[in-house]
């Protein structure tokens, strides 16, 4: 009997050491009461495909345009701040990107090939632009938040076909991941009936329709959530002035630690090679050449 108990205790100790404990489960994101919504907070589906129960948040027109740089995370953060509900003032995205990298010129910033969502949000938090941020762990959490509270930053593996949107309004994120690359955009709406998120890009109106396209829940696999880069932002409401992220940069060791992991470089390559920083005027291009 003693031998049996000893073996049982040994097995329990081994399991604990192997990490099979509840503490290894990612904590859920904080819960918020549903936002009070006005008609001004909502926008129509540009594709006219959404069900009556869909929720699409009003945003500033897609920033035209990010161009050939690697600032997709910074542009996404700025768009989240400016989006309804409770749109707030936001810094210049390129200045925000440089501050996240700890450099003082955009040329120097482009040598780093992107940054992390967490890094940019940490800068905004330290500067008092936001009060916090948090990660989503699964589709249900994400859908519930977008339905009840607002848009989120959508950082994900880069799909080969990210630049393509089908004529029926759906993103076509098929094919192998492009060399381990990453990209950041916005999720600005959700349709729980159709099990889809409305994604908004920041490379002009020629992507999808008015810069938006639908993405099915099934495309957001556990691997995408494991990146930890699908993030919500806790805003400071009704800021009266545009934040000024003055240089030189923050002396924050945490930022360099975060950035040492996989960085998000904007990989809208077909678009950026051809047009760089010119304003896009074409409205209905399905394929970005």
CATH topology: Cathepsin B, Chain A
Nearest-integer average pLDDT: 76
The top level CATH class name: Alpha Beta
Indicate the low-confidence ranges by residue numbers. Answer: 10-23, 247-264, 267-289
Query: What proportion of the residues form beta strands (DSSP E)?
Result: 15-25%
Quick one: biggest sheet? 7 strands, antiparallel
Order of helices and strands: HEHHHHEHEEEEHEHH
Structural class: alpha+beta
Instruction: Give the fraction of residues assigned to helices.
Output: 25-40%
What distance lies between the first and last C-alpha atoms, to the nearest angstrom? Answer: 74 Å
The CATH architecture is: Alpha-Beta Complex
Summarize the topology.
Elements: H1 2-17, E1 55-56, H2 72-82, H3 93-101, H4 106-110, H5 117-126, E2 130-135, H6 139-148, E3 152-159, E4 177-191, E5 196-200, E6 212-216, H7 222-226, E7 230-235, H8 253-259, H9 269-275
Give the structure's gist in a few sentences.
With 289 residues, the chain is of the alpha+beta class. It has helices spanning 2-17, 72-82, 93-101, 106-110, 117-126, 139-148, 222-226, 253-259, 269-275; strands at residues 55-56, 130-135, 152-159, 177-191, 196-200, 212-216, 230-235.
